[in-house]
UniProtKB/TrEMBL annotation:
Protein name: 2-oxoacid:ferredoxin oxidoreductase subunit beta
Cofactors (names): Mg(2+); thiamine diphosphate; [4Fe-4S] cluster
Pfam families, per database record: PFO_beta_C (PF12367), TPP_enzyme_C (PF02775)
Superkingdom in the source lineage: Bacteria
Amino acid sequence: MATFKDFRNNIKPNWCPGCGDFSVQAAIQKACAANGLEPDELAVITGIGCSGRLSGYIKSYGFHSTHGRSLPVAQGVKMANDDLTVIASGGDGDGFAIGMGHTVHALKRNIDITYIVMDNQVYGLTKGQTSPSSGKGFVTKTTPDGSKENPIQPIRTALASGATFVAQSVSSDIKQLTAIIQQAMDHKGFSFINVFSPCVTYNKVNTYDWFKENLIAVEDIEDFDHTDAKNAMQNVMEYDGLLKGIIYHDQEAKSYQENIDGYLDQPLIKKKMTLENETFDELMAEFR
């Protein structure tokens, strides 16, 4: 059985010292080992940004896609080979800006993959501009007078889009994050995890201390029910999205694959994909 170390490779991450992404990577590796996966049973698909490097730092199948496009690739990988556990990952810019259209449609489509967003509320790779989740008034080089926009609400968006597994954590709580990722991978459907992953270089507002003071564990909220979407949304709105834990989990909903007749009997990778000459000639004849 694979251990945490079996998901390591020889590539040293070049994130800034103290970056929350180190802990997210470790949590993924721990969760995969705890769930009994082998490296060749996992595919990690990433987009562009600091977090996009993740697919090269984990020993598994990996694909570094273009900006905002990790989800289309990840869904394609899963549809072609249902035997793989597929994790898509990216930052708040990758998932909530250029990739937002893909995010919303993936949330409602419910393909059986896990999507982990490393939300540092700033564009770190391009040296500190506002991202979709930056707070109103956030000061950067391109917004010296403070951002004039309201930040996107990832958890509210996920719930409103029909997601069947919604969770949020912070990279400093690696024990909780690991447990959440384990449950997300076990969920038969699309699992969305927003992880606050502080940027120690370009975001001096949303720091580790800030999240420690402001995040509220769902276990500490009386009558919180993560099986009730309405209850989850009400609490998300009441606490302005600053919750951590499993916020919503629908164990009854069918995944996209389960709704396609015959799919699970023989995914694409197991099908004979050759085209006989006679069939090809018949198809070409239609265009004459």
